[in-house]
């Protein structure tokens, strides 16, 4: 009886120490689920989901506060990936958040720009260069197409231009299977 | 002589159709009415244009400078005037346009001053820069910049140099004719490459269906006294694939994700060796290449064509038959139909095949996969095309990558043998470009995330710094108040002291002294009164 007690206590102690050690050594910083969700989101930081950026939206999804269908730039494919990750049912994009559009970049009409810096302040990824009373311009490679700079412009000199297809970004098309007409026998 | 040859797995033996275009020697194509030279002709970055419309250029003048090291320059193929710097439809499966330099030849064909390089006295790095600026790229079809491949492996040398003259794809004969007619330059070019790579062995692999080329190369090697081996390899498509030829000649199988350099082997097309020699020994950049014009034409033949020559100006030389309905660039296995006959010849153009419905009948309709496994038996990379097909078709790209879709060289053997006529390579190309574009998007998203995070951090920092500055300012104001209070207190103290200390000389006065003071006061009052009434006239 006593031996059994000792053995059990001993095992409990050893396991307790091992678990305590493991919880310190293998501690995971941050929430891995948030990072996984954040990795799926397109990082446009546009705020169309109603959260100030992709990470806050990812946190809200992880907490179960937000639905997975509120990201228009991610589109249907993004929703599918989120549904896969979270084991949820796919649902179409929430029309309230916006509509899926082809990828565009902002273009500043440099003749009209008055150099007010409002768009620079609005850009979430620092993709606009310029300074007060100097012409501004968008660095196209860095622009995520979030459209946040369009509204603040007091002279309406910013418009969105869809990214054109070039030989560098052209993709092979999905081979289309021919649909044959079936003749009535 | 090499003792044994090795075998690569799979492969097919399609009809070669090579005889028709080898009956005539290589001819020089006449100067076209205009040259459309695309800036982007090699793997890697797009060269920066160096010319402006209206500018006169000489033959061999650089018109596009390499963009970084992973790129190669482009040159004016003849002397003339730059007419425009404009987009033009490209020989590319997309049919899209890209920036081209349009040159109107002046007919003089005047060379720029050519500066040959003594390759034995230059450092390898300088030689590589020379080749980059001479626009030398792999002419086997992949147009990979040659200077990047001419780097010795670790240890300062690449043991084996392979010159690829296999030319395994049907119809194409440009390398065959080059070896027959200009073997000497190829061998000399091979010697230059051997010098740069410090190679011990040089193997020249030629498919055994080109006996004249093998003979020409053998006699030339013997005549020049070079220690190179000309090896006849069995004719089996795709023996000319770099990895396949390396396997056949050396037995080395280069695994996924590795380069042949890592195993001490490097492989170049024979035409590349030819242009390396011209670039270094003659100072002539890559401005022309041999192109096979064949297929549904009256007089199939090989031509030496200036880069940028529009295809439509070459066609009258061979006379396409009336039922020609499209033109294929490359061979029938890996080539693609050209979007228009106005496309220019580029460094990658080895062959143009005129196609007709009779010669290349439209493929029968695609049938369901029956899992016969024929594709797996012919795949030279030992992949399982039927599995890749399912994954590509179902857009299951992760799984496709797991099954090594990026090992596929798109040789087309699987589609060639497929009894259900499934365009397998089209599915693989679709999956590959989709995966690439996703990876690019992912990288862009990661960059955007880090920029966003940096911006947030910066804004936080700015806010913090502002708050700190404000705090400092108020602290400073408070310090100033304390100082002022100190001064006020000191003044107050001084006043109190003054009040306490009474003047002593007015106390306890005698009546005489009082009288004196009164008199002085009266005098003062008088003077003051006088000072207040201005004099009426000067005294």
Which features would summarize this protein structure in a list?
heterodimer, A: 185 residues, mainly alpha, 3-methyladenine DNA Glycosylase II, Chain A, domain 3, Alpha-Beta Plaits, 2 domains, 32% helix, elongated, B: 539 residues, alpha/beta, Fumarate Reductase Iron-sulfur Protein, Chain B, domain 2, four-stranded antiparallel beta sheet, 38% helix
What does this 3D model show about the protein?
The complex is a heterodimer of chains A (185) and B (539). Chain A has 185 residues and is mainly alpha-helical. Chain A has two domains: 68 residues, Electron transport complex subunit B, putative Fe-S cluster (3-methyladenine DNA Glycosylase II, Chain A, domain 3); 84 residues, Alpha-Beta Plaits (2-Layer Sandwich). Helix content of chain A is 32%, strand content 8%. In chain A, the strands form two sheets. In chain A, strands 1-4 form a two-stranded antiparallel sheet. In chain A, strands 2-3 form a two-stranded antiparallel sheet. In chain A, strand 2 and strand 3 form a beta hairpin. In chain A, helix 2 crosses helix 3. The longest helix of chain A has 24 residues. Chain A starts with a helix and ends in a 23-residue tail after the last strand. The model of chain A has no long low-confidence stretch (mean pLDDT 89). Among the domains of chain B are: 254 residues, NADH-ubiquinone oxidoreductase 51kDa subunit (Rossmann fold); 107 residues, Fumarate Reductase Iron-sulfur Protein, Chain B, domain 2 (Orthogonal Bundle). The N and C termini of chain B lie far apart (140 Å). With 539 residues, chain B is α/β, with parallel strands linked by helices. Helices cover 38% and strands 15% of the residues of chain B. In chain B, helix 3 runs parallel beside helix 5. Chain B is built from 14 helices and 17 strands. Classes of the chains: A mainly alpha (185), B alpha/beta (539).
